[in-house]
Design a protein that fits this description.
188 residues, alpha/beta, Rossmann fold, 6 strands, 40% helix, globular, binds guanosine-3'-monophosphate-5'-diphosphate, binds magnesium ion
């Protein structure tokens, strides 16, 4: 399966660095110039939620290149068709945690209630944010979270694998299961 996921979060929280850590495969250079985003791809094999064996998930990872104030039209194009949100904040700047609600809500207005994964980045630096604040925010969205560092690589692979698994569970999970419940259970 092929899925689009969007990274959101304030300027300088580490979105581009996290993607660079996770994937180096460039997708389409021209596209990024036109709408100010960069799309990278990475294939992850996750346990198949429906049957024994592995499921190959091709993640198309969208990165915002500019600042927060990008226009409504670009915003729609950026968020359209997203199957998952990676919401990134910076553990050294508390205000970046608060603004994630606005980011997540604006993706959901375009893409619907897709799974969210919260990354509290720059875990290698001294924290100005209490982990509980991040945990509470994640809980509001039935989401899981990780403390990451794009610098050391801490938890970077794990959290992308986690979101790939949650999305695949949503689409390939047991048909009798309520999709939302499947997602939450997989996140725990
Ligand atoms: P953005 O894409 O969200 O705007 P960037 O953020 O990936 O461009 O990162 C912003 C700055 O934070 C960069 O520093 C980058 O090196 C740094 N950074 C990103 N992630 C981490 C991390 O986990 N730990 C530390 N210590 N620094 C990080 P510069 O100086 O290049 O602006
Ligand atoms: Mg960036």
């Amino acid at each position: 399966m092929k899925v689009k996921i969007c990274l959101v979060g304030d300027f300088q929280v580490g979105k581009t660095s996290l993607i660079r850590r996770f994937v180096l495969d460039q997708f389409d250079e021209r596209y990024l110039e036109t709408i100010g985003t960069k799309v990278s791809k990475k294939i992850i094999n996750v346990d198949n939620p429906a049957e024994d064996g592995l499921l190959s998930v091709k993640l198309m990872v969208w990165d915002i290149m500019g600042r927060k104030e990008f226009g409504d039209l670009l915003r729609e194009a950026y968020f359209y068709g997203a199957k998952g949100i990676v919401a990134v904040c910076d553990l050294t700047r508390p205000e970046t945690v608060d603004s994630l609600r606005e980011w997540i809500d604006s993706v959901m207005r375009v893409a619907g209630e897709v799974p969210v994964h919260v990354l509290a980045n720059k875990a290698d630096l001294e924290h100005e944010v209490d982990e509980k604040v991040v945990a509470d925010l994640a809980a509001e969205y039935g989401s899981s979270y990780h403390l990451t560092s794009a610098k050391t690589g801490k938890n970077v692979e794990v959290c992308f694998a986690d979101i790939a698994l949650r999305i695949s569970a949503l689409y390939f999970g047991a048909p009798e299961a309520e999709p939302k419940e499947t997602v939450t259970a997989a996140a725990d």
